[in-house]
């Protein structure tokens, strides 16, 4: 008789991020900002691989490199600079534009739409300035009051609709998760936090932002595969926009899930392509 397989608890986001260190905020050029962010992601990927292989010496070495580069705090400073008005702006402006029609019917005497912003960097973005939205902000390393220090994978599951959200913003978060299975686990967990309960007609919504390279230049993920993955979880794509660097998407949660398994399949071979992938395990 084959031994029973033990169910594996979804990995925490924090396992992909080493301890933070203090660093001084300095002016960074656009090129330096991109380099810091790219380097940080590469080191996290290498760290995850070393940790999976049980190579503690390699993990310690990589942690030292990340520490030398300023750690998570420097990464977040670079990310904030990347969202400044002179470098592409606040991504939540696109979300607010996309959901504006139903918001026009919101009555101030009614309850607001609840938003969960995962990986929040600021309390002053477009969502925060929209009266119809009640924003809950979380991040692994809170940068200011109003952002709860919390790992989404450890956030207690809601027990009532009042604890759920009408909108979840996942802007440049999934690409930070260091392994493909963890990304799939995060997407599966999202649906448990969505609710149709609100004061206006509004479909539960996921705002999703990824670097274009994660889709266009990956061996294991294409836009078609991403659509298949999210459709299997009950999402329907309603808006999409591309820039040179980012892809923005708005997904409605229909609840019509068709659970499937998606492995790390070779979809787009090429020596210069990256290994970004999403593994989704059925069940």
From TrEMBL:
Keywords: Membrane, Methyltransferase, Nucleus, S-adenosyl-L-methionine, Transferase, Transmembrane, Transmembrane helix
Polar residues composition bias: residue spans: 22-32
TM regions (residue ranges): 193-213
Pfam families per UniProt: Bmt2 (PF11968)
InterPro entries from the UniProt entry: Bmt2/SAMTOR (IPR021867), SAM-dependent_MTases_sf (IPR029063)
Main location: nucleus
Binding site for S-adenosyl-L-methionine: 119, 139
Sequence segments annotated as region (Disordered): 1-32
Superkingdom of the organism of origin: Eukaryota
Enzyme class (EC, first level): transferase
Coiled-coil boundaries: none
GO molecular function: rRNA (adenine) methyltransferase activity
Any one GO CC term of the record: nucleolus
Annotated compartments: Nucleus, Nucleolus
EC number: 2.1.1.-
Function, in words: S-adenosyl-L-methionine-dependent methyltransferase that specifically methylates the N(1) position of an adenine present in helix 65 in 25S rRNA.
Family the entry assigns: Belongs to the BMT2 family.
The protein's name in its UniProt record: 25S rRNA adenine-N(1) methyltransferase
Native organism taxonomy: Eukaryota, Fungi, Dikarya, Ascomycota, Pezizomycotina
């Amino acid at each position: 008789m084959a031994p029973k397989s033990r169910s594996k608890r979804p990995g925490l986001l924090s396992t992909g991020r080493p301890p933070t260190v203090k660093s001084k905020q300095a002016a960074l050029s656009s090129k330096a900002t991109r380099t810091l962010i790219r380097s940080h992601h590469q080191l996290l990927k290498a760290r995850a691989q070393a940790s999976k292989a049980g190579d503690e010496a390699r993990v310690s070495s990589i942690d030292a490199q990340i520490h030398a580069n300023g750690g998570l705090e420097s990464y977040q400073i670079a990310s904030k600079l990347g969202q400044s008005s002179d470098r592409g702006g606040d991504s939540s402006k696109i979300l607010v534009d996309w959901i504006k029609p139903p918001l026009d019917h919101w009555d101030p005497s009614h309850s607001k739409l609840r938003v969960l912003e995962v990986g929040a960097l600021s309390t002053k973005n477009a969502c925060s300035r929209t009266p119809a939205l009640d924003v809950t902000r979380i991040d692994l390393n809170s940068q200011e009051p109003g952002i709860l220090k919390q790992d989404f994978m450890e956030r207690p599951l809601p027990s009532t609709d009042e604890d759920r959200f009408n909108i979840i913003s996942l802007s440049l978060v999934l690409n930070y998760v260091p392994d493909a299975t963890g990304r799939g686990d995060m997407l599966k967990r999202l649906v448990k936090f969505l609710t149709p309960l609100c004061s206006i007609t509004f479909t539960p919504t996921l705002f999703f932002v990824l670097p274009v390279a994660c889709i266009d230049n990956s061996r294991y993920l294409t836009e078609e595969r991403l659509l298949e993955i999210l459709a299997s979880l009950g999402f329907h794509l309603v808006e999409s926009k591309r820039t040179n660097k980012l892809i923005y998407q708005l997904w409605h949660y229909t609840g019509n899930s068709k659970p499937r398994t998606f492995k790390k399949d070779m979809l787009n071979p090429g020596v210069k392509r990256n290994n970004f992938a999403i593994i989704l395990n059925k069940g």
